[in-house]
Design a protein that fits this description.
Strand order of the largest sheet: 2-1-11-10-12-13-14-15-16
Main location: mitochondrion
Distance between the termini: 156 Å
Number of helices: 36
InterPro entries: AMP-bd_C, AMP-bd_C_sf, AMP-binding_CS, AMP-dep_synth/lig_dom, ANL_N_sf, Mitochondrial_ACSM, Nop53/GLTSCR2
Keywords: ATP-binding, Ligase, Lipid metabolism, Magnesium, Metal-binding, Mitochondrion, Nucleotide-binding, Nucleus, Ribosome biogenesis
Subcellular location: Mitochondrion; Nucleus, Nucleolus; Nucleus, Nucleoplasm
Radius of gyration: 45 Å
CATH architecture of the domain at 459-590 and 597-628: 2-Layer Sandwich
Shape: extended
CATH superfamily of the domain at 459-590 and 597-628: ANL, C-terminal domain
Structural class: alpha/beta
Domain AMP-dependent synthetase/ligase: 48-407
């Protein structure tokens, strides 16, 4: 039925409330808090559970494109997934696997089997190009890929190596060709070889990662969103129970590609968590007629479809259609117009329940049972989530105002929220603000808690349920030689909601080509096909416009800055919506006829490019600021500095010191790398292979190489070298076992026993010379080599190199390094001087400072004087005993009476003693516990000391090895290094005319020879004339005559 005919039967009054059943109410479950167990495995705790309780219930039904039916019960699903897990385990360990498959049942079996083998799956759509597959394999660091024949051919074209390559689907001849030529493994052959062997269950943590999805981004490559057994396997129970309204014996159909997270939502976890069956339509593309045919012939009870499909369905003749078992409809992926909801309800009697979620989350909000359904609204927060509308600072906005959809995650983080983007902590941090996770969508919330979608905060394009990042399309377009600049935006579409539209600035060589109509159409078709080859086909621009220039942002960058519709202004945002088509001729407002812009002349006449650029720049600025700048409050714009809590103030003295320590600007000219760009353009020469390589892929490969990754050729070469080395060692070992023998038996005898006699070894016929040359052991004559033949030569340099800082024009860094070495030498000398001073002066003071007898007596009698002073003071004031004696007898009797304690006092004293004992015991226990906890600190201290000791030992060993590699010392005197010859910073000069001759080449060369032990080091005698000292020899017991005594 055409759209305008359906619109006539839309009720004028909106129904106030619609309920599906009475099994639960939203108000009773909205405050539910999900708490996952520590150990959880969806395959074992859910699939095997249903197999034991309702094993014969339908779990999976597949309808192929040729209308062939196949079905699996929960018992069959459990058994076959265990067998597939055992078959995959037989190939070896699989940690990460990329799965790119069409809608075949093996994809569902593979999901359950991967949970049993603890393999993390990276699903992808079959529309991915070879470059997309290469990026995903590299980024995921996958060791396995599951693919069909078409995907396998793309992988082989890239010549990528994976540990395991498994074919899941394809024609038998093509499968055999890939197996024989490229080493692929057939999944069906694995299952046949494995037989009925089943994998054993393994205990699994709920935090175990099971799936990672790639989500589109506005800048850069897609991000990886990981999910665990807890977030997807456990928390999608809410999705299946409260939003999909599933129960055992239900059959659910989700029209989604297996490569998207939506397929995991309501094709795997949500329906199977409720014991419901999953229906699969094998066609890669499902149209409206196919959907109506399936709903009329198959027992599908619940339907989940994107809004694009509902828009196509309401244009069919729904009056003549009858559904066999359909009772519940939901939609997600993009906003659903109110008119579509009302038109579907008027034709079928079923209300579409809209829901909202992301790849990073489970169901965040939706229309549930027991609540008023307001068409056009995404409903209320799902059980387990607390949703607020916040600004960019993470603060809640007033009711009715637009803001970011925020998931409250502190102090209690929702179990269904992802932990963070895999390997990208910075992008994870951008997604959180304050106590909220920001979804990236803008919406408003009314006073009843209903959420109304407004727009995306980024430039993500949602077309027919597909999330498309402008960056990917722009990057693909820029690779075409005709494209100089490009900007990709969303453009409104009645069927798809949005389509990709590209604004392109052509290179001068292609400007003339678009002047003719045929040339322009030919270039548009060429660009569309080119993008299809560079990225997924669904991302190609369906609308292309050629412009002379693109507007710039405030940062002067080309951006996808047209998130709004180019054809309309914000005030006419609803112009294209179907609501204007659904209204009757009486109620519809009169729309002014738009000026024609089909030809170039009309475009120039009716369009002002400057106004369009100014409007788009203002609109983009408003989106970045979170709304109109004038409408924002002061507290959202300005921030008051309350004091130096965050950033301490810097004193004037510190600032002055920092300015003094700042290096001079002239030293930048002495740096090795210049700041001036290469004047020779990149296009004037042929690029090398490394330059032609994709920079993002090159960066990934570099990062992986730092982690130890190697290519297949490098691994093969390493294996070949290892094999050759092993063969060489085996050959050498075999040569040593060779012996010359005596053949003292008849080789021509017919008796086999004689041949099997033990071979007698003999070396009598060998000469002594031959034995000395080891002929007996090796089998050949070898030359004897001297003992020091294998000794390593010394690491002696030809000429000693001076320090670079001693050159006439050193760099700033080299000169500072030389100054630092000089400072270390001075500090060492100063330390030695202080040590000598301590041992010579402080330990042995001079006569003036030495203690005398008088000072000794004063020091020893100092305490005695204090005792005498105290005694005098006591005599003046009187002792304590005299004071007690002066007390009266009455006081003494009173004190004696008080000494007799009552029973109450004795009981209190016992209690105090017990309490004191308890406190002492607690203190002792606390001290023991502290000693136990302190063992870790002791252990860390010992480990740190051990590391320091090992470092010192390593340093001494290296010094010893370096010393052994140097020439031997020629004399008993060691060469003493002269003082460093350096200049201060102000003495440096960059002019050769100002340099004065310094030093002595002959002396420097002689010192160099002594330093390297090529010349014996000699030390002249001091205080001796001409450097020579006569040796006086005197015979023992010899005296001159005049020295003898009489």
């Amino acid at each position: 039925m055409p759209l305008n005919q359906i619109c006539r039967i839309v009720p004028a009054v909106r129904p106030s409330s619609r309920y599906l059943s009475s099994s639960y109410r939203y108000d009773d479950v909205k405050d539910t808090v999900l708490t996952a167990p520590k150990k959880f495995n969806f395959a074992q705790d859910v699939i095997d559970k249903w197999a034991g309780e309702t094993g014969n219930n339908l779990a999976l039904q597949h309808l192929s494109s040729d209308h062939t039916h196949r079905s699996w019960s929960f018992t069959e699903l459990s058994t076959q997934s265990k067998q597939m897990g055992a078959a995959l385990r037989s190939l070896g360990e699989m940690k990460r696997a990329v799965t790119i498959l069409p809608k075949v049942p093996e994809w569902w079996l593979l999901n359950v089997a991967a949970m049993r083998t603890h393999t993390v799956l990276f699903p992808g759509t079959i529309q991915l190009t070879a470059e997309d597959i290469a990026m995903r394999l590299a980024k995921a660091e996958a060791d396995t890929i599951f693919a069909d024949v078409s995907t396998a051919l793309k992988v082989e074209a890239l010549k990528l190596n994976a540990t395991h390559k498994v074919l899941v689907h394809g024609q038998e001849s093509e499968v055999q060709d890939l197996i024989n030529r490229h080493g692929w493994t057939s999944l069906q052959e694995l299952l046949d070889q494995n037989g009925s062997t089943e994998i054993e269950p393994v205990e699994t943590d709920a935090s175990q990662m099971i799936q990672v999805y790639f989500t589109s981004g506005t800048t850069g490559e897609p991000k990886m969103v990981p999910h665990s057994q807890r977030s997807y396997g456990y928390c999608h129970w809410v999705t299946g129970k409260y939003w999909l309204d599933l129960a055992p014996h239900d059959l659910h159909w989700n029209i989604s590609d297996p490569g998207w997270a939506k397929s995991a939502w309501s094709n795997v976890f949500a329906p199977w968590s409720q014991g419901a069956g999953v229906f699969i339509h094998g066609a890669n593309r499902v149209v409206a007629k196919d959907v109506l045919e399936v709903l009329g012939t198959q027992p599908v009870t619940t339907l989940c479809a994107p809004p694009t499909l509902y828009r196509s369905l309401i244009q069919e003749d729904l009056v003549t259609c009858s559904f066999k078992a359909l009772r519940h409809c939901v939609s997600a992926g993009e906003p659903l117009n109110e008119e579509i909801i009302l038109a579907w309800e008027a034709a079928t009697g079923l209300l579409i329940k809209e829901g909202y979620g992301q790849t990073e989350t489970t169901l965040v909000c939706g229309n549930f049972e027991g609540m008023d359904v307001r068409p056009g609204s995404m409903g209320k927060a799902a059980p387990g989530y607390d949703i607020k509308i916040v600004n960019n600072m993470g603060q809640e906005v007033p009711v009715g105002e637009q803001g970011n959809i925020g998931v409250y995650c502190r102090p209690h983080r929702p179990e269904g929220l992802f932990e963070g983007y895999l390997g990208e902590p910075e992008k994870t941090g951008y997604s959180f603000s304050g106590d909220f996770y920001l979804t990236g969508d803008r919406a408003s919330m009314d006073k009843d808690g209903y959420i109304w979608f407004a727009a995306r905060t980024d430039d993500i394009i949602i077309s027919a349920g597909y999330r498309i990042g402008p960056f990917e399309v722009e990057s693909a377009l820029l690779q075409h030689p005709a494209v100089s600049e490009s900007a990709v935006v969303a453009s409104p579409d009645l069927v798809r909601g949005q389509v990709v539209k590209a604004f392109i600035v052509l290179t001068p060589a292609y400007v003339e080509e678009i002047k003719s109509k045929d040339g322009k159409e030919r270039l548009i078709k060429e660009l569309e096909n080119f993008v299809k080859t560079k990225t997924a086909p669904y991302k190609y621009p369906r609308k292309i416009a050629f412009v002379k220039s693109l507007p710039k942002t405030l940062l002067k960058e080309n951006k996808s800055l047209w998130h709004v519709w180019v054809q309309t202004s914000p005030s006419t945002f609803n112009f294209w919506r179907p609501s204007n088509l659904i209204m009757t001729s009486k109620t519809a407002p009169k729309i002014q006829k738009k000026a024609s812009k089909k030809s170039k002349k009309s475009w120039r006449k009716n369009t002002d490019i400057e106004d369009v650029e100014e409007f788009l720049e203002d609109q983009r600025l408003e989106e970045r600021l979170g709304g109109a700048f004038k409408a924002r409050k002061d507290e959202d714009i300005f921030m008051v500095d309350k004091g130096p809590e965050d950033s301490p103030l810097i004193t004037r003295k510190t600032r002055k010191q920092l300015r003094a320590e700042k290096p001079l600007k002239c030293f930048h000219h002495l740096e090795t790398k210049g700041k001036v760009a290469d004047p020779v353009g990149q296009r004037t020469r042929v690029k090398t292979q490394q330059e032609r390589q994709n920079p993002m892929l090159k960066a990934q490969i570099t990062q992986k190489r730092l982690g130890g990754w190697k290519t297949a050729s490098e691994i093969s070469a390493h294996q070949d070298r290892s094999t050759a080395l092993k063969a060489k060692k085996d050959q050498q070992a075999e040569r040593k076992t060779r012996r010359r023998t005596n053949f003292d038996f008849d080789l021509w005898t017919e008796t086999p026993g004689d041949v099997e006699k033990e071979i007698i070894q003999s070396d009598e016929w060998l000469s002594d010379t031959t034995k000395r040359h080891n002929l007996k052991e090796s089998g050949k004559l070898t030359r004897k080599v001297p003992e020091d033949f294998h000794r390593k030569p010394s690491t002696l340099t030809a000429v000693s190199q001076p320090h670079p800082g001693e050159s006439y024009n050193p760099s700033y860094k080299e000169h500072q390094d030389l100054m630092w070495q000089a400072a270390m030498v001075e500090m060492k000398k100063e330390k030695e001087h202080l040590k000598i001073e301590y041992h010579t002066t402080r330990m042995f003071p001079s006569v003036k400072d030495a203690p005398t007898q008088e000072s000794w007596i004063n020091e020893m009698s100092e305490g005695i004087k204090e005792l005498e002073a105290a005694k005098k003071e006591e005599e003046e004031t009187g002792s304590d005993e005299d004071v007690l004696e002066e007390k009266g007898e009455d006081e003494e009797l009173t004190q004696r009476d008080n000494k007799v304690k009552t029973r109450k006092q004795r009981r209190k004293e016992i209690q105090l003693l017990a309490e004191d004992k308890r406190v002492r015991r607690l203190k002792e226990e606390k001290k023991k516990n502290q000693d136990v906890f302190r063992t870790k600190k002791f252990k860390r201290t010992l480990e740190a000391q051990e590391k320091v000791t090992q470092a010192k030992m390593r340093k001494r060993r290296l010094q010893k090895e370096a010393k052994l590699s140097q020439p031997a010392q020629l004399s008993t005197h060691k060469f003493e290094e002269p003082d460093l010859d350096l200049k201060l910073t102000e003495e440096l000069t960059g002019n050769l005319r100002n340099i004065r001759p310094e030093g002595n080449i002959l002396a420097d060369r002689y010192n160099s020879l002594k330093r390297r032990n090529l010349v014996e080091t000699r030390v002249p005698h001091k205080n001796v004339k001409n450097g020579k000292k006569r040796k006086r020899v005197e015979k023992r017991n010899y005296k001159m005559p005049w020295q003898k005594k009489d």
